[in-house]
Amino acid sequence: MPLEYPSKISLARLPTPLQPLDRLTEKHSTPHGGPRLWVKRDDLTESGMSGNKLRKLEFIAGAARERGCDTLITCGGIQSNHCRTTALVGAKLGLRVQLILRGEHSGAADGNLLVDQLAGASCAFYPPREYFSRQAELFDYWRDFYEQRGHRALCIPTGASDGLGIWGYISGTEELLSDCKAAGFEPEQIICATGSGGTQAGLTLGCHLVGAETRVTGFAVCDSAEYFYDKVREDVADWASSYSGGFDPAALDISVNADYIGPGYAIAEEPVYRTIAEVANLEGVLLDPVYTGKAFHGLLQELHRGQYRHCENLVFVHTGGHFGLFPHREHFGFLQ
Ligand SMILES: *Cc1c(COP(=O)(O)O)cnc(C)c1O
């Protein structure tokens, strides 16, 4: 049964490439063999708007247009890739963007925040405690603020992860599996970094809906495995309530690895920075320390533990994050 997608605005350059990582595969081959490693280059969805959030925002932007909204409101950390992508999408479509940002900011903006400013987004900064405890109120405040001035705002949740946003990765799954088919295989394993759960939810649901036998594992970069089991189910339940009444999220095989979070969200230890350098050096691919570097580091550890010895092909979804690399420059002292 073909899926009935809601309307979207095309912003991403699709399909993104699927590429083999043969130098890494060779370097990390183990006595029991192991899978050929592939990367789905969703860091190449666009240049400024690069990364996984763009696939979700295509559907969110479609809804904004249908609902006659002229303003987007969303939230995230100061180095949020999602906020940066929303800021640029808003600029491109002529929509106002209000960002609710977690953390303090002083001095010159760097990385994603610099891009937010270049795109002309309005930024409001909140200390982490207030950001988390008053998040719903902050959204209400800013929505009312714009409505009182004659605008109509669409509120986008963290990471654009909800029943609408996950269409981005249901569609991304169809694309990825068709790339694999063209390359002559069906992957046994797909791996992505998981932060707000939507990418993992879309991939897991997408594989289920098309009847693929592929296992999707999210490598957590924050929170706990329980958090992601619940969050993926919640996003899928939200999707089902609007688009597929009878679907039971309990039917999904959700797989989370929360063993490589390290000290916490956006805080990494040296092995992660070394993995980023290794992948750049062997494959010419740039990972980031917050999401993809951490997840890829976890993937390599699990590979050496024999976790994927029964897989022939493993696809890592490169979800982007380049702009978040440079604010971590001081952690690369070992390169000198
Ligand atoms: C947001 C993000 C993720 C996580 O995706 P979610 O859908 O929020 O779980 C992974 N990688 C990068 C680079 C991201 O910006």
TrEMBL record:
One function term, GO molecular function aspect: D-cysteine desulfhydrase activity
Keywords: Lyase, Pyridoxal phosphate
Domain Tryptophan synthase beta chain-like PALP intervals: 9-320
EC nos: 4.4.1.25
Enzyme class: lyase
Cofactor(s) required, per the database record: pyridoxal 5'-phosphate
Family: Belongs to the ACC deaminase/D-cysteine desulfhydrase family.
Protein name per the record: L-cysteate sulfo-lyase
Gene source species: Microbulbifer aggregans
UniProt lineage: Bacteria, Pseudomonadati, Pseudomonadota, Gammaproteobacteria, Cellvibrionales
